[in-house]
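User: Sequence in, structure out. Go.
Assistant: Echoing your sequence, followed by the structure tokens.
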Amino acid sequence: MNNEYRARLKKFHQLREHVDALLFFGGEQPSDYMYVSGTTAQGFLLYDFSRARLYTNAMEISRARRSSPHHAEVRQLTDVLEELRGKTVGVNYATTPAQLFQLVQRRAKTKDITNVTEAARACKTPQEVCHIRKACNISRQSFSHTDVRTTATELTIAADIECAMRRRGADRAFPTIVASGSNIQFPHHEPTLRRARRPLLIDFGARYHGYCSDITRMIGSSYTSAIEKVFAAVEELLAPNVRAAQLDARARDVLGHHARHFVTSLGHGIGLDVHERPWISSQSTDVLKTGMTFTIEPGIYVPNGIRIENDYLITHTGFRNLTDW
């Protein structure tokens, strides 16, 4: 195990008094598993606070050994669970597939570690920050090389940006949103064959080594100055120990009469998932900490409206805008 993954697993040591081991499963929602295993190879990871063991199948073993820092071997889950019979095992209740969860409960006691895994992943290691920075840089390069002429359609622009990210070694983090004119009023508009016109909103992100960027840029909006004032006000607050709900409140205060058309939360964490902690909303209980990465995305959702979205990192002394372009 290298130092990076040793540091990640150490974040779970607070659980030693409550559980005998931790189980992380790959599958439909594999982010926790990827966080501790370093691989997308199907399987599961067992950590007993002394060593981590990665188990997979014969088809995936070569990929697991090539991509994970942990010892990997072919072994059935049922065999491993027999060794855990009667013990207490920490499992993420929110993301573990129901069938696997039931298998664990037949042999062991379980404890929900969802909150611990979310908190551990919220504060990024230097390596994670490096991957997110790279995803942001790939997004910048891809955007600058995309033709956004008014003769293009929304779908064409979306496809061009996604192809540009692939050419630079990244996947798309999510389906690109391109909305023009009256379509801007819909936060999750799906691109169409409509000819793009000003104002034009492009919401896109790259996924590099599993880590995401999430950026929105506008071309030709009459609301730009109003949104720039929001960013200036919110950035004054960005620092460790600030409550995330304060950021949302400040944004709405600065928007003034436009606030009634700001129908989303102010932002969200980014990492292995496009949406993760910290949550930047009026209802959030999260507090900013060093190493957190998240978006700030104020908008005015009306026809010909606006949304601009930047990605941030909280540092020991304040913040860095990872998308300052």
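User: And one key feature?
Assistant: The chain has two domains: 3-121, 126-321.
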